[in-house]
Amino acid sequence: MLQKAEKYSVIEMCPIRNVVARFGNKWSLIVILILSENEVVRFNELCRIIPDVSSKVLSGTLKALEADGLVIRKVYPVVPPKVEYSLTEMGTSLVPFIVQLTEWAQANMNSILKHREQYTG
Amino acid sequence: MLQKAEKYSVIEMCPIRNVVARFGNKWSLIVILILSENEVVRFNELCRIIPDVSSKVLSGTLKALEADGLVIRKVYPVVPPKVEYSLTEMGTSLVPFIVQLTEWAQANMNSILKHREQYTG
DNA sequence: CGGCATCCAGCCGGATACTG
DNA sequence: CAGTATCCGGCTGGATGCCG
To answer: CB contact, 8 Å: A116 with chain B?
Structure first.
């Protein structure tokens, strides 16, 4: 305790920072949640479901999740192209924790918002 | 399902995005974890414990957490100044979920790293 | 349909220096 | 000791346009 926390030092070695660096962006969690609710979703479906995301950013988000082994990208060699996204087993195993976090957020959101507006920095 | 997800629309109304917008930054989770392990920590202790954080960024992080009602900032009117940070009840209630997330990250980090290096974008 | 290329603005975090 | 002030570079995310 209270000594230099080596375990938090190198971001590549730090699970928290590693995981948060991945999910801390604007859309990753929403994508995972939607995939967990729908099993298989096409690119443009995600585009429509998620409000205000550009296709460039969405594809970047999906790529990152795919690179981590959380999401599967399945391409059908047809015209017009068809691409389906789904969660891997590892991705699915993460869902319960995200859901719990979401529930906590839901339960405490009002309190947090109230604190924020009362706060005088 | 597969309809415009209003629940994710407005960030102020969306618990996930609200919570992640707050913890998705570089240091918040580490600060919360350290506070959860130590009960009361002074500013400079945090500075020393956390690697590579500047005092400006740290104070910003703490302010945000304080504004949300997750962290208490207690100032002692002495010279030199003494300020103690600790978790509120709400902050403490969040810790288990973060810990779970951390454990998931720890358990899956190797797999994630392996996927990343195998991934050819 | 499912992207990528390009360009661009804003924010986040870091370095340094200074203060009550 | 516990910050704030200033400056700055880089990255993230968004807009637009193009392509197989």
So the answer is: yes
CA of A10 to C1' of D10 (A): 19
Do A104 and B97 lie within an 8 Å CB cutoff?
yes
CB B85 within 8 A of CB B35: yes
Q: Which of B19, B26, B112 sits opposite A69 (nearest CB)?
A: B112
- Write out chain A residues lying below 8 Å of B91, CB-based: none
SS3 B53: coil
Please list the helix, strand and coil fractions of chain B in percent, rounded to the nearest 5, in that order: 60, 10, 30
Given a cut of 90, is residue A92 above it in pLDDT? Answer: yes
Q: What is the pTM of this model?
A: 0.91
**Structure tokens belonging to residue A56:** 């460039």
User: What contacts B16, CB < 8 A, 6 or more positions away?
Assistant: A29, A30, A33, A98, A101, A102, A105, B8
Token readout for A93 is 């195993």
Rounded to whole angstroms, the Cα distance separating A22 from A68 reads: 9
Q: What is the pLDDT of residues A56-78, one digit of tens each?
A: 999 999 999 999 999 999 999 99
Q: Which residue has the tokens 């629940």?
A: B7
**Who's near B36: CB < 8 A, 6+ residues apart?**
B87, B92, B95, B99
C-alpha distances in Å from residue A56, one per residue of A41, A44, A59, A64, A83:
17, 12, 5, 12, 15
Q: What is the pLDDT of residues A9-45, one digit of tens each?
A: 565 668 778 878 888 899 999 999 999 999 999 999 9
